[in-house]
Amino acid sequence: MPKLGPFTGFIDQILKNDLEKIKKERHTAQRIYERLRDEYGYDGKYGAVKEYVRGKRLHLKEKFVPLSHAPGHAQVDFGQTHGVIGGVERKIHFFCMSLPYSDDSFVMGFPAETTEAFCAGHNAACDHFGGVPQSILYDNTSIAVVKVYRDGRRDLTEEMIRLQIPLPVR
Q1: Residues 46, 29: Cα–Cα separation, whole Å
Q2: What PANTHER family does its record include (predicted)?
Q3: Residues 106 and 154 occupy one common structural domain
Q4: Does 79 share its domain with 26?
Q5: 94/38 same-domain check
Q6: Are 95 and 110 in contact (CB under 8 A)?
Q7: Kind and range of the H or E run holding 129
């Protein structure tokens, strides 16, 4: 990229201006290369231009949505990893409850993702946090959710209904 270095500002400006144009009118990497060569005397390789343009376009496409979390709300999910227990490598299922507002979390490992592990994880997490969250958002685990409807409603498992009696579930 040393030969391309002095030209990156020009390329960036082209790509930024292209965002305002319809797709057919935007510069291709080939066209940018030709303009650099013809208008600015660039004598580097096309591949360097193509690679730079591809990376820059990906960066320009990135969209970020700021997340906002109210105090007292939790998220729960199960995950998997591998670990060594008693000298034997095995799959470990872990329960994770996080409180995004306070950036606190609780993780507990289990031999399997079961209803018992789900309930034990909740109890241990609430002990860890010193209370029960106002609401919990679940990642549609089959232990808690039987069906998710297009409008966001969920049919919960019997175990989940019993567990969440005092707790609003989102």
Answers
A1: 8
A2: INTEGRASE PROTEIN (PTHR35004:SF7), TRANSPOSASE RV3428C-RELATED (PTHR35004)
A3: yes
A4: no
A5: no
A6: yes
A7: helix 115-129
Q: Is residue 12 part of a domain?
A: yes
Is 32 in the same domain as 85? no
Mean pLDDT of 51-60: 90
- One-letter amino acid at 46 equals Y
Q: Using CA of residue 104, residue 141, residue 113, residue 130, what is the dihedral sign?
A: positive
Predicted confidence (pLDDT) per residue in 154-165, tens digit: 888 888 787 765
Contact 156, 169 (CB under 8 A): yes
Q: What is the C-alpha separation between 99 and 76, in angstroms, rounded?
A: 9
Please give the Cα distance from 42 to 36 (Å, whole number).
5
Decide which of 125 and 22 is more confident: 125
| 11 three-state secondary structure | helix
Distance of CA 50 to the CA centre of its chain: 28
Residues 136 and 93 in one domain: yes
Q: Are residues 93 and 129 in the same domain?
A: yes
Which one is predicted more confidently, 170 or 124? 124
User: Which residue has 């409850």 as its token pair?
Assistant: 97
Q: Are residues 86 and 134 in the same domain?
A: yes
